[in-house]
Each structure stands twice: as C-alpha cells, then as structure tokens.
Amino acid sequence: MNNIDVILERLQSAKQPALEHPEELTDRIMSSLDSLGSEVATPSPAERLKGNTLLILRTALSLAAMWIIGFFIYLQFDTVAPVAQESLPSTKDTGSGSSTLKEVYKDRLCQDCKKTIRYTQIRSKLYENK
Amino acid sequence: MTQIDEALITRCQTGDKDAFRSLVETCQGMVFSVALKMLADEEEAKDIVQETFLRVWLNIGKYDACHSFTTWLYAIASRLCLDRLKSRSRIIAMPEDEAVLRRYASADGQLELENREWMAIVRLMAEGLSPKQRLVFTLSQLEGLSSQEVEEATGFTATQVKSNLYVARQTIRERLKCLGYE
After folding, report:
1. Average of per-residue pLDDT across B135-140
2. B1 is a domain residue
3. Which end of chain A has the least Cβ crowding within 10 Å, N or C?
C-alpha cells in the first residue's frame, strides 16, 4: 500500500469534523422550524386571493402563448408551403437579369400581367370576329 | 453510520417536535461532517445542516421506512451541497494547506484533526474535482459509505459512481504525487 492510500485510509478512520456548540445549531434549527410552521399554517385571505389570481393569470398567459404559437405555425404552412411547391423562378427564367428574390417576383408578376392582357386581347378579337 | 430509532421517526411523522429535536441532536453532526468536507467552510456547512433539517421536517411524511433514514438524510444534504457548489466559485487551496497535510501524513499513529485542518486537507486534495466527483469521493472515501449507499444517496447509477470515484481518486493521486507523495 502506498503513502496516498495510507493517507486516505487514515482520514476515513480519523476523528470526524464536529460542531463546537451543537446545542446552538439545534436551537437555530428548531426556531426556524417554528417560524416556518407559522408561515405555512396561516395564509391570509389576501394571500390566497393573490395566489389564485396569479394562477389564473399564468394559465391564461400560457394559453394565449400557445394560441399565438399555433397561429404562427398555421400562417407559416398557409403561406410558405405553396411557394415552396411552386419552385421559385430563377433569374435565368426571367431573362431580365434581375438578381434579388424581390426582383424575380416583380418580373414574374409583370409576366403574369402581360399574359392576362394577352388573353383579354385574344378574347376581344374573338368576339370581334363573331 | 448513525442508527436511528424507528419509533423516533414515527413520532416525528406525527408532528412531535420534541422527537424531532432528538433527531436533530443525533444526526446534525453527521450532516455537518459531510457538508464541511464538501464545502470546506464552517458557516456554509452549518447553513446546509439547518436547510437539511428543514427539508426533513417538511418531507418526513414522505419518508419510506424501507430505506435507511441516514441514507435519506445523506441524499438531502448531498443535493443541497451540490447546489451550493454549483452556484459558487471553485474551492481553491491555500498555501498553508500543504503544511497541514504534510504534518498529518508524517505523524505517527492517529492524529486528531480540528475542523480547520479537515478543511485544509479537503481543499488541497479535492481542488480540481467537479462537484459530482467531490460528492462521490466524500461519501465513499471520507464518510465510508458502501457503493450501494452512495448510489442511493446521490441518485447516480453504479457506473456513474464508479467512474466518478475513479476519476476523483486519480486526480487526487496525481495532485499528491506533485506534492511529493508516492
């Protein structure tokens, strides 16, 4: 057995730490117990009301938070998913050299407008022919 | 380990404060010993004793007599010590602590240790340990609890106890080697 093991073994069998005035600590514990007992035993009606209000408030806030989170998730699915499915037009598709997403969308919208105008023109021509 | 009369615990469970006073008188030394070795501070150790017995009083109704009362007490005190250790800065050894250990190691026969000497020795030995390693080392090596008791008191698994104890012992061994012990 080496020196280190001897030290550890001797520490285990040594006189353990002890309180100098144990009765003082006992009194301190017992008095804290008394004050604790009185605190716990008599919650005033005002404290009870405060506790209930806090509980209701916390529940309401939690529900509101859950509703807001749910609403945002719903909005996310409602708006983002179709865009993702559609596959965004690339800058090459527009042919106008736009680089940002905003510009790509603008171009796309313009194209749609043009398409609509073309369709109305065709329709009017058809009616004119008739 | 201190043996507690079951009748005394039953009386405490019925709210008998005189019985609880006897319980405190019997067990406060044991809790103080663990807390002092863990925190290396006498006043903090006393605070832990007080807080432990407050919790015992509040939860004694939940105590299951199938388990040892002292292990349950160790569990409460250990948790409080761990929380205290986590919230405060590291325990750092003082330059004079080495002299205390040297005197203790070189003494023939069993040397009586004062509280401040205990604090010096644990400060020096357990300086680089994590709170968990420190707890397992204190309970197992300094308090002499069995592995089963350490598991129950800390809530760690057998593997966790073994690994924490191994690392703690290795760290202390290295530290003592640096100080010139073989």
Report:
1. 94
2. no
3. C
